[in-house]
Amino acid sequence: MKLKSYLLTLGIILLASSMLFSNEIDRDINSSSNIHIIIPKVVKSPKVVELDVKNGNMDISNRKIKFSKRYPPNYIPLKDKIAKMSKESNNSTKVGYINHGRVSVNLIGDLIKTKDAKAKLIKAGFKIVKVYHINKRRSLVSIVFTDDTLKKMASKNGRGFAGTLRLLIDKKDKIFAITNPLYITKAFLQDDFDKKNSEKLLNKITKEFNGLRDSLDRFKFQGLPKYQFMEGMPHYKDMIEIGNGTDLLEKVKNNKRVAFVLNLDKDSTIVGVKLSKRTKKFPKKIGLKNAGLLPYPVLIENNKAVILDPKYYISVMYPNLKMEEFMTIATIPEAIEKDCSRVFR
Fold this sequence. Notes:
Radius of gyration: 42 Å
CATH class: Alpha Beta
CATH architecture: 2-Layer Sandwich
Distance between the termini: 140 Å
Oligomer: single chain
Order of helices and strands: HHEEHEEHEEHHEEEHEEHEEHHH
Shape: elongated
Structural class: alpha+beta
CATH topology: TATA-Binding Protein
């Protein structure tokens, strides 16, 4: 009885479902004259890859995953960058001139004899002021030179430190280095910088000395007038007075501490001071290539003798100097000031 009752109930349910499904189809047919049937596309089977395994010739040792080369916009491969840099180097501006906003401290050449260097400077129209041997072995020679154009530019008040240039001969490293007129005049003439005449000086040098190249020591050309080693350190204008009076020129005459005296005009004189044996050794610690900053310059005008603060002068002549290197000569600035002051006692 239970089985019959169960079968009867199941039959009633199936009949009701069939009638409901039939009614749904009738409503769909009546609501529209079109019947849309979507038949799914048959998925294609993957293409069979045939491998040649006859005689064991198939090589399956290289199982690297290869990716397509996709680069970001404006991407330039490294080899192309190197080629571009090489091309720019070959087509770069003339030696000593502004290059990518920077200018070199010195113009470097292969070793030359002192007499030959002097002869070339004279031929170029310069006047030799002094040949100064920096060290006892005479392997470092500083040739101080000038000309009328340079003296005239440096005759303005407070600009006398631009009155001389230097040619350093380094017999040990077999090079010579000439102070770049563009670098010195831009830094020391400040607002009185004369680009036209400074370039004339540079051209006189490069015309006579063949094969010159820019030194690695460089600085931003437009930043030179405001140069300082770091925040809080002195600028060009922060000069140190080491003597005063109307007899300053008398004190430098025949003074064994003085290497040269150069009159820029009647009211301005630049003096080169010989530093003590111990003090003048400092270039050994930070680089001999820029040792041409010696003998140390002193400017006499308006009855005062002043020097550029050594912390400024050394660093502007060594613009690549690092703090840890500067710390190795921490006592030198004060020693320089004392050496220069002794001349006017």
